[in-house]
Amino acid sequence: MASLKNLHEPNTNLGNALHTNFDVDYVIDYRFATTSKSQAVAQFTKLIEALSDAGLATEVRNGDNGAVLVFVKAASETRLRAEVYRSRVQDWLYGVRSAAPEKDMRKSLDEEPMTEAERLRIVHLLITKPKAERGAGITPKSGEWENVESIFALHDHKFNKEWIKDLGSKYLLNSEDLTKIRDRFGEKIAFYFAFLQSYFLFLTFPAGFGFCSWVILGQYSPWYAIINGLWCIFFVEYWKKQETDLAVEWGVRGVSRIQHKRPNFRHERVIKDPVTGEEIKFYPATKRLTRQLLQVPFAIFASLVLGSLIALCFSIEVFISEVYDGPFKSYLVFLPTVLLTLIMPISSTLLTGFASKLTDFENYETTDAHEAAMVSKIFVLNFITSYLPIFLTAFVYVPFAQIIVPYLDVLQVTVRPFAEDEKQMTAPKSEFQINPDRLKKQIIYFTVTAQIVNFGMEIAVPYLSRRFSRKVKEIKADRTTNNGASGDAADDHPEEAAFLARVRNEAELSVYDVTTDLREMVVQFGYLSLFSVIWPLTAVSFLINNWIELRGDALKIAVQTQRPVPWRADSIGPWLNALGFLSWLGSLTTAAIVYLFSGDGLGPDGNPRDIKGWGLLLTIFFSEHIYLGVQLGVRTALGKIDSPGLQRERAERFTIRRQYLQDSLGQEAAEEEKAAEGVTLAKQTIGRNILEEEARQSTLQGHGTPEERFWKRQQGPSETIAIGKMYIEKAASAATEAKESKKEL
Q1: What residues contact residue 351 under an 8 Å CB cut-off, 6+ apart?
Q2: Which pLDDT tens digit goes with each residue over 277-315?
Q3: How many other C-beta atoms are found inside a 10 Å radius of the C-beta of residue 291?
Q4: DSSP for 204-227?
Q5: Bigger pLDDT: 652 vs 662
Q6: Rounded CA gap, 12 and 390, in Å?
Q7: How many Å apart are CA 325 and CA 334, to the nearest integer?
Q8: Which of 448, 386, 444 is nearest to 582 (CA)?
Q9: DSSP type of residue 261
Q10: What is the 3-state secondary structure (H, E, C) of 67-109?
């Protein structure tokens, strides 16, 4: 009976492993497939030592495809609590907190326990902060840490399952739901969900009014244009207030002032701040400005490349649909769409990569400044790709079709193989009629069809890709087993097997970037602000899409990507400026579209002589000035003006911060160092057999929890290094044998 009991124990442990993270804070995916064995071992040793010096405990396990997984957690709860307390004191000193924490660290943390997001954020900072700031200085894929593929936290699958189920059962999110997201994933992601929720609620008005306008007023209604413009202004200004309220409620107002230094920042020299006397890393502002000016030729170049591509495909589409009258016309009309589908992603990817390199070249000191610069470039690219086709139709095709279309005969080469004679490819000399439905069809495509396609690309494609990659991995594992070689999971302890399989799968997931989802919502807002007067049901489409989008984004975070680092934020960042810009631009485009198309809805029928230039300019002029009369846009500029009083305030705050840190944290810092020294064990060499035997005995005897046994399999950093070296050497030998067997074949 005892033997039967022991046989059933692994199955129980297997089930438990699927519902626990073994107290792991982060996993470091260390890949060495393209590195020599000696270099891989040396860098791995340096990695473990750096983590240990930063007060972090480590365990190593085998990974997939020439990789090892380094599991990291805070070695000392005392050190972790001290870092959390230090962070809260820093918040108070920078004005983020209104009241100072209790000077008794234990009492302070008992009264306000740390959240899971706070713990993960602090541990991540310990891993990534420079050594001069008491961190390990690990920067994935950069510099000496190029073999560190990623640093990610493990998903809480129990919470994720309940979270997704809860979102699917309710129509709206309440404050408790947002607080739950903030405590798990950080304020940055919570702000995105709060923005999406507010945007969704606000859409109910333009959706209802738009439906009534579509039924009663029709398209190009001046009344709809006025109401929609006022709604855009009100929403943007309301969200600014809502951001402040949420930041105060979540205790992060002004947290953007606590800037995280970029590890890739390259300073020229170290100087003393003339006001505070603090030593700072200096990079000349004039030199950065010179580099920033390269954004102008980049924007021009991107506009020319993407604009020319879109204009060419637009012209081909007009030629085929309006001029060509030969065979296969119904099929050839999709040729421009195919060209855009094939070429546009490649062009956008190349330009985005160039924008990223240009942003790195500009050498920003902080992550926030770097992100803002990158967002501005991405916004330019998305503005061109998203809105230019509609601008061409509204302000080029409709007003000037009579002049332009006859010159499109140069595009005969695109359909010549299918035409039967020249007449089928020649524009009519008279009685040319523009297509009055072209503009509305474009809006419907971008606001309905494209939204559905994008949602499928976000959810379905990653899911299918992940299933395919897992199937390929299973086939490779079966082949490896059949060939007599041991697989990556051969050394896994039975108690950890299911857990490690889950970790290896999570290591292959993509990294979640909330900026991508924010960009999608801002671009959507642009369609509503700029062009919804063409099709008043635009807001109805967005209302339905965004209800699904919120739950789809939650599913993406929980299932399809690695768990994001819970960074803090006090707003949606630079995207707020993009919202303001689109709202302002909407006052111009909407006024112009109403002037051109109001009445019969056909516009000037392709004849520019029917357009009164002075009337168009006067309409735009009045519309903009009415907008500027409502919009309050000077607060940010005034807040950035420095003065002697502000300099004095900065000097006094710096003095207070330094004195407070010395007085209140001196004792805790000494206790931290003592605790950190206590967790560092003497180096010793223990073989794999001894470790596994000890772990097996502990498992059989039932001593401790699975989490405790997980962290006791390797006693200290020296054993972690030894086991990691063994994994690396074993993987290198297997790779060599595989190459030799291929040569023999």
Answers
A1: 302, 305, 306, 381
A2: 667 777 888 888 888 888 888 888 888 888 888 888 877
A3: 13
A4: HHHHHHHHHIIIII-TT-HHHHHH
A5: 662
A6: 60
A7: 15
A8: 386
A9: B
A10: EEEEEEEECCHHHHHHHHHHHHHHHHHCCCCCCCCCCCHHHHH
